[in-house]
Input
Amino acid sequence: MMGTCLIWWLMMLVLGMAFMPLTAIVFKNYRDCGWIFSKVLGAVLPGYFVWLLVSTGLFKFTTTFCVVIVLLGIVLNTAIFWCRLKKGKSVFWITRENGKLIICEELLFLLLFLFWTYLAGFHPAAKGTEKFMDYGFMASMMRSTEIPAPDIWYAGESLNYYYGGQYFAVFLTKISFTRIQETYNVMRTLVAAFAFMMPFAVGRQLWEDRAVNVSGKKRTGASVPVGLLAGAAVSFAGNMHYVLAGPLLRFFGKFLGHDSDYTYWFSNSTRYIGYYPKGSDRTIHEYPAYSFILGDLHAHVVNLMFVLCLVGIIYAFMKSPLLISKTKQRDSLPRRLMRSLKNPYNLMFGIFLGVFHFTNYWDFPIYFVVIMAVVVYRNLREGQFSPGYTIGRSLLHGAWILMISELVALPFTLQFDSMVSGIALAKNHTSLKQLLVVWGFPLILCSIFVVWTIIKNARKTENRGWFRNLLEKTHPSDLFVAGLVLCAVGLVLIPELVYVRDIYEENSARANTMFKLTYQAFTLFGISMAYILVRFLLNKSHVLYVTGILGSICLFSTIGYFGTAVSDWFGNVLDRSGFQGLDATAYLENDYPTDAGAIDWLNENVDGSPVIVEACGDSYSEYQRISAMTGLPCVLGWYVHEWLWRNDTEDLNERKSDVELIYTSRDGAEVSELLEKYDVDYIYVGDLEREKYKVVNDSLLKSAGEVVFERNGTYIIAISE
Output
């Protein structure tokens, strides 16, 4: 089973090496030339172009077509290599200076990938929480030659959700010639490995750029520890609620509002605000470590690897050489536009932001703001703080990036019906106590850094104001981290002011807004805190040194969350007898013994995406196990999910009633009419159908077609044409 993991590692190695000519241009100011990021670029760029050409109807989503596009990407990168070689530019990204670093990064990536995959093998089942949905999306896309694929829970319609994460998982599955049964788990462990390695790369480079003494010699000894700490803070750590409610529960139980019989479970730290005490403002504040351990392959999880790659690109853009020239300030608008068109960073920003539209839209506005902050900074410096130059260039850059992103996402936005019902002012607010429990540590530590940076550099002089001095005297590494901090703080505070309205407004109005925004806040805080702590620990100020010591204790305490969560969810991972392998569907034989054979029959004998009928049920229930495990669309699936995606309860209720009539009606004509209405090809009858509808009219159903499978009371009917 671990063979699939090794195949994927080899695939990512090949993709990364193949796309290094392009990557080395974007990350030319990184010592490793963007080695780790090249793997993500090697996946996202050909994956996007496959999606574009298929979703516009020009080609079919097949393994052959995916491989062809990857090969074309390799040819293009080879052309870039030879063009740069002919111009006498550097083309060899592995040198004596960075060779050891690149080899160590690759080995660390492989070890992390294997480590997370090993853990996943202790709980591989695509069952529970939203795993039915995630696996079902992948199964539907594996069957379909069109994008968007059919909605597994709303026959006759295509997916109306952010399916990009599952799409890229299927794309990688196709080009690696592997099976989704294993790659469902391998994809999530790949993301987990990237969630350590890309913060490592950014954190290491931040410190390496900063660690220059007066004589110009680099003192980079702490660069690797900063990188390791950044990777751990993003991918292994929890929040301070874990520390207070876990190891220190006996001291802080009453303070946190927990009863005397309270027992800590690893998900509790993601659902504290609004739950203790219970109220009508239940919220969600998850973070990457929880997602990786739980195992959902959801939009916000998969997009994390694209987000972190974009963060790396933003920093490469920020520290690229400034073009300070009075001549350039007087350039005409067409010349400015042409420079913007040729700027590889603007193109990258537009592509990634466009991809975010269908992977996780929430990340689009978040990182557009981050990008524009850096754009404004660079234009201030290049324009020597000329207001007209800065505003004009920034508006031009912003408009160009937005236009690229909208064009990139156009095939998705044209068919997507928004689930948002508007934005409203928050009526509920997090108590100061709960806010400090969850966010106090990063907020306080990072605020001290920002204030210290301002005090140290923003001194008004005779010729220059404090703001100009701040931007010119502050090292770019410090400025970048301060910018990430300010963005993260804003993401924490926004749900206290406004929220995006959806169907959960009655009891969980702020839940989704807080969830999606603070997930990114946690990620940005993680990268920032690693850098800040080492800055403080190596500072001569006793106050900052003590702050660094206390902050390090807190951060390492939150990293302890990883061990607790692993034990809670996976059990004793040192006992290899509990290792179940990577097959996400192997659980069917034990959990659904009467359904397992029928699911195998459907997967082996049914091609394409014909419609099935199975019992419909509530979200997060065991209903829809057939559509989820086969990718075949059913008449109606998880009710609340489809309500969120389509907001049409009248049609939902009609479908729900129709499904019940198909199973229970004694009127053959009525059943035939309903089967024809939804273009049903197969009727499924198993234990859950009998449990749901009590009296299933077996004889009438069997008369509607041919019984193509029957075992242990479960049968499948192929409808006669």
Summary: Residues 125 and 584 are 4 Å apart (CA to CA).
